[in-house]
Amino acid sequence: MLHVQNLSKSFGTETLFEGVNFVLNPGDRSGLIGPNGCGKTTLLRILAGEERADRGSVIFDPPGLKPGYLAQGFSFADGETLAGYINRMEGDLPGLSSRLETLAAALAADPGSGRLQAEYDETLTRLSAVAESAGQGPAVLAGLGLNRVPPGLPIATLSGGQKTRLALAGVLLASPPLLLLDEPTNHLDLEMLAWLETLLAGYRGAALIVSHDRAFIDHTVQRILDLDPEKHRVREYTGNYSDYLRQVLAKRERNLSQYKDQVYEIRHMRQDINRTKQQAAWVEQTTTPRQPGVRRIAKKVAAKAKSREKKLERYLESDEIIEKPKMGWQMKLEFSGAQTSGRDALALEDLAVGYNGRALLEGLNQVVRLGARIALTGPNGSGKTTLLKTISGGLPPVAGRVRLGANVQLGGMAQEQEELDPGLNALETIQAARPSSETDARSFLHYYLFAGDDVFTPISRLSYGVRARLSLARLVALGCNLLLLDEPLNHLDIPSRARFEQALSGFEGTVLAVVHDRYFIETFATQVWEIRDGKMLT
How far apart (Å, rounded) are the C-alpha atoms in residues 217 and 239? Predict the structure, then answer.
């Protein structure tokens, strides 16, 4: 269906990827992963025909196959309405039928044409898919939460999230034989994610999916294509994201074991060479010219040691040497430090939260034990952030009260890390939070994965992922033992999410986090608070 051969792309002197090879067959589900900026979106744009590669080829089988492409920042025609867009994307049955008749007549005149036969087969498949999906618009719109939008409403008036979901609906309704989906889970709540996963499970075509939602990838793909930003190549792994992680970690353990064996062997060889050279030198120093036989043997021993030393040097410079495995972002963490017993860290007593006397949530009676790790989930606009602001004192309760436990120091992390001063660097931020020497501050930052000169980079130049880790470090440095985290994984790619989880794993306090990443929830949460219809479900 899709053959990618030796594909390469650069921008100026920066290489995104080179020598990329993979094949997608009918029914394949593949996830394309890698850090932000490594070229995933560019690769999808090349496959969709919206950008050209520097070298290599993209071959579709049949040649006329047109993939359905969901881009980030999808645009719509001026003045188009929701109903008009859906009708257009559901397919042109009369046009496809007419094309099929034309191809059938051409095949009758030239039955040996492989090109005509391939196009006929593809058109017939496309016609069947469009006929099957005809009239599915309302169901797809409902699944993506767009069924309440007036059909005649101009698309330009929709929110960014609604436009993204509408673009996804259009791609799915067109029923192409190949889907190229770039971050399809953006702006989807848990119910919509489950709906999309079910739809993809029954999809007859192939799909190549770029997503930072690890649980979504786990549930939808059977192969991972890992785009390495250092080697600029794609490596294939069989299975879903969890399978990929196990394979990568097992390989790293094997490489590390081989590297340690090599280090031991090199150390042993050097010790043996030095010992031999010292013995030869000692014989030379303790004998006289009247002992030529002994000295002759000593010189041979010294020459042998020199030969072995040169051989070792050649080995160290050869391709056979095993490099020390770098610490990658792939990691599997157990948040085992969480304890849910003991005294109270936080109590919500008949609490109602909202704005201007209007309650979004009410009747909240919850007790949080010291050490608990709670994931707060629910649809957008249901009151999650409002609840955190009320707990932190940023908003007054509509009713009831919030009570903190004894010696509880509360700290919060906002969605955009607004609590960080962009004019400072990581070292200055930690020293401002907790006066300490540069050595102590750098040692502390090491636990949050800041190494070397990273501590001197201005915050304004840090990525969202690095800022998230610094925000966490700052809260701990301030002595906070109850953290309120509002979407801490927003804007983070998979590597940044994994690094944030690693930094959080060492925190022994209490955490209440608004989060939608199901993979994070499964490894992190000791409790889940779900907001639904103005109520809290636990």
Answer: 10
